[in-house]
Amino acid sequence: MFFGPYFVGALAYADDLVLLAPTPTAMRKLLSICDEYAKDYSIKFNAKKSKWLAIIPRKRRWLSSQLDFCQFHVGGCNIESLFI
To answer: Residue 80 in contact with residue 72, Cβ under 8 Å?
Structure first.
């Protein structure tokens, strides 16, 4: 996400991380970067403690039906969706 001229795609506090992306493709790229980082530094991201959430503007609600087919992975494991 852009805040003025600055791109902010990851927010971190202690051992928690929030990834923000404008598209599923962008989110997959961020998760790929996480996988590369985990490999380089011998750490593991826990997909079982992770969730993904999409926020869709009202005028684009038709996109919500496509989310059923959207999947994300980290560390070779599926990340569960959080629909509220």
So the answer is: no
